[in-house]
Amino acid sequence: MTRMRFLVLALFASLTINLFFGGLTIGHWIERGGPRLGWSWAEAPDGPGPRWLRRTLGEDGMPALRAAWERHGQEADALRDRVHQTRLQVIEALAAEPFDATAYAAALANMRDTRALEHVGMHAVMVDLTQNLTPEQRARLVERSRAWAERRGRRHRQ
User: Which of 69, 70, 74, 112 has an alpha carbon 20 to 30 Å from 93's alpha carbon atom?
Assistant: First the structure.
């Protein structure tokens, strides 16, 4: 085999492998709803709440989801702003010269406490939502939650 033919085959193999992994990455990214993971209080074009929840509930569950999201929206916006401010405070404490470990620890604790409040808000939305779902909609949510817990459990056991 000539050197040129070997280089062409190696280039082709490399390109094939890169396209394969690129496709896997893009597919995973699309399945998870893009680069932003987690909750977004801003309404997406296909409705409020995280994509997994909208897909799980389907069109018949969207009125209950929209109503719950609207009831908690103002509080959620304020919490999201507070979380953002605490992140900025953590960055500022980390960048301070001279570095003050006590101030940095306090900023991290403040961020942790604010994130805990944000979780309380998310949980309030979920409680509000689930009490307005039909048994079939709630069963779909249970099925999705069990699948998520199983995937998460496998990842932690490995």
Answer: 74
